[in-house]
Amino acid sequence: MTARASRDDVTITTLDHEASGENKLDSLDMLQLAFWGCLLVAVAAASIAIAWPGAVGGTGPILLISMAAGGMVFLLWVLKGAGRRLGLFPQKGAAEDAVNATMPRFGWIESLDEAVLIADQGGAPIAANEKYRELSQIALAGQQDSATAVTVDRIFSASPGLAAPVFRLSKSAKAGETHREVLPAMTIGSDALPVQYEASVAPLPRNRVVWRLRRINGAEAATGAADMKALYVEDAPLGFFAAKPDGTITYANGWLRDLIGLPETAKNVRLDDIMRPEFVRMLGRDKKSGAPGRANIMIRTRDGVEMPVQTMTTWTGKGADAQGRTVVVANSQSQLEGEGRFLAASASRPAKPEGDPMFDDAPFGAVRLEGNSVESAIILDSNKALMEMAEGRSAPGTRFSDLFSAEEEDGEEGLAAKLIEAVDKPMGLKLAGEEPKSVNVFVTLDNMGQPSVAYIIDMTEQKELELRLAQGEKMQAIGQLAGGVAHDFNNVLTGIMLNNDELMTRHPVGDPSYENLKSIHEFSVRAKDLVHMLLAYARQQTFKREVFDVNDFLSELSILLRQILDERIEFQNIPQRNLPYVKADKNQLETAIFNLVTNARDAMLQKGRAGGKLTIRSSRATAEDAHKHGFNFVADGDYLLIEIADTGHGIPANIMDKIFQPFFTTKDVGVGTGLGLATVYGIIKQSEGYVCPISKVDEGTNFQIYLPALKADEIAQPEIVGPEEEAVDHRPVDISGRGKILLVEDEKGVRDIAVMHLISRGYEVLSAEDGEEALEILEDEAGSFDLIISDVVMPGMDGPALIKAAKDYLGDARVIFISGYAERDLAKKLDDDREVSFLPKPFSVRQLAERVKQQLGMRKEREAA
Question: Distance (Å, rounded) from C-alpha 826 to C-alpha 513?
C-alpha cells in the first residue's frame, strides 16, 4: 500500500509539473554531482590506502573512515528506494519531492466507487483515482501508460456525439460552476459494449476542479442497444426515445427532437409533456409482459400542435429499474413533403390507414377493446359518437371501465359486476361526466373469449321519459286518491251540512245552541273549500271554459291582488299587446293565480325579509321557449305565457320535484294546507296547459303558466267541461213546491235527511239506495216522476247507467246528478238529448231545494210551450 501510494504521489508530482507548464531540463544538479564525485574520490582514495598502505601514510585511517561513511550512505540510499525513485542523476528538487511524497495528496478520491479526476480549471489532470485510470486504459485501448491520467475529452474522443455535453461541462469547470450532464450512450474499448455515464463537475479550493463519471445502472436497457447498430439511432431517419417507469425521458434522438422542437439541452422532459395522459398509459400497457406494443397516438410539439404517429414500445427490467424503448414512425397519410412535421388530424384520435364507416359514422357509441377482461380492458379506438357522448374522455389508452360512474353502481366492484353482465346483453349504466348520462352497454367477445368491441347507446332521453311517465302515473294515482277521498268526504260533509241546517231552523238566533250550530256551519264551509282544492288537484272539477283576453282578465284581477299584498311589496303587471286568446275557466284560473301570489307574498315576507317585488307578465311564447329552460315536456305549439315572478327566498333544487304534491309544504306547522300549488297544478293541467317553476335560492321564483293559444277559427262560444252548474240567485225566493221526485243515493244518512227536507217543502219523494232498486221503481211507476235526483257514483249500477237503462220509463222527467266529484261530459253518456243538471256535494238544504224548484219550473215551461 505504501509503495503504491509513493508511486502515485510521484506520478501526481510529475503531473503537477506538467500542469504547471514547466518543462524540466535534463541538466545535472552541480551540488549532487559534486557529492557523487567526492564520494567516488573518497572510495578511490580509501581503496588505494588499503592496497598501498605505505603510500598513504598517516592519512590512511581518515580515508578508511570516509570510505565507510560513503558506503553506509549508499547502502541506506539503496535500501530506502530513493535511488530507484530519483535515478542515478535526478532532476532538481526531486529529493524534496521524495520527502514530501510521504504526505498523501487527494487521497479521498480512492474511496469513491466512481471514476474521479482532479484537474485545474483548464482541464489539465492533477490527480486521478484507480477507477479513472482503468477507464482511461479501456477508452484508449492500452495507448496510455496506466500510471498516468488523461483529460476527460480524450476518454470520449471516439464518440462524436459526446462533444457537446463535454464542452458544456468544460465551460462550467472554467467558470467555477457546478454542472451535471447525462451523457448519451456510447461504446468503450474494443469490446464495443454500450454504456452510459452521468458526468459532473464541481469547483475545489486553489482553482482545482473535480470531475466525476458515474456509470448509470441498466444503461444497456435504456439505450436498447445490444450491438454497435443501436448507437446510430441519434441520426436515424425515424424517432426513438427511452423512458423510465415514472415517465421521465432519458434520451430522445435527433429526429424526434427536431419533430417536437425539443432542444438538445432540455432537461427533465416527461412523456406527459409531449403527449396526453391516455397515450402515456397506452405506451405502458405492456410493461409487465415485455411484449412489443403497437399504438397510434398523438404527439404534441412545443407549439401545442398534435400530430398522429405510430409507435412500437418494448420494456425490459422490473420495478423502478424498468426501461422502455419506443420507436416513433411517421404516419404516411399525414406527412408533409419537404417538412419534418405532420399535419394534425382533425379528429381526436389518430387517423387509421383503413376507414370503417360502420364504426366511425355509427349513430351510437362504439369502441374497440383490448384486454383479458371487460373491467380491465383498454380502449384501442372509439368512434366520433362516443367521443361526443363521453365529452372526449374515450380517447385510446383509457381504461374502458373509467368511462362509467362507479358511485352510481355501488363502487368499483358493483361496476365490474355490471360490465361482466353486459357481455352479449344490454346493461344500463351511468356514463360519467359533468352531467351523467344513462346508457345501455353491450360488449362482444372475440374467439379467444376476450373483449373485442363494445357498443354504448345513449338512453338519457328515454330514461327522462320513463321518469316523467312514472311521475305522471304517481301524480295521477295521488289525484285518484284525492278524488276518492273527496268523494267519500263530500258524502259525510253533505250529511253534516244538511243536519246542521235542520238544527239551525229549529234553533234560530237567540237560542243558546245557535252559536254552536253556527260554528259547525263555518267549519263545514272550510272543509268544503278544502275538498274543492283536492278536486282541483285531481282535475275532477266542473269547468266552464270560455274564450277571453288575458290582458283584460289580469287588469281586473290586479285590483284584487293589490288588496292581498303587503304594502312593503312592490307590485307590477306588465301586459303585452296583440296577445292570443285562450279558452279557460276564469274562476279556476283566478284561483290558481291567487294561490301563486299568496305563496310569493309569504316568501318575500318570511324570516325577517323586508319585502320585495312581485311581477305578473303576459306574452306570446312557443314550446321552444319552455325547452330552453329544460321543460322538454311542453308539447310543440303556440302558447300564451303568464309569469308570476317574485324576489323571495327561492325554492331549493332538492325539493323542486315535490312542490306540486298534495300536503307538501315548507311552511311552519299550522300555516297553510299544503294544497296551494297542488291546486294550481290541477287547474292548469285541466286547462290543457303547463306550469313550470324556475327558481334560485335567495334570488326568487318565477312560475310560468303556458296556456294553449287559440287560432282564429277556434274562437267560439263558452264550452262546458262536465255538467253545467247553473247560476243560483241567492235572493229570498219560495223554495217549496209540488211534484213527484225519485231520490237515488247510496249514502243512507244523506238520503234520509234529503228526503225529509224535500217532503217538508211539499214534494212527494220516493228513495232508492242503488241503481237496481231505482230501476225497479221506475218500471213499476213509469212516466209518473217529474224529477230524478241520482248520485253519480254508486255500487253496481251508477247514475248515468240508470238513466240510460230507464229512458223508456222516464217520460219528460228532468234529471239532477249529485256527486262528491264531477264526471266529465255526463250528457254524452246518456245517448239521447235529455238535459241534465249537476249539483256538486256538499250542498245545503237551500241549495238542494232551489235546484229542485228550478228544474221543475223549467219542466213546466217546456210543457206550456
Answer: 42
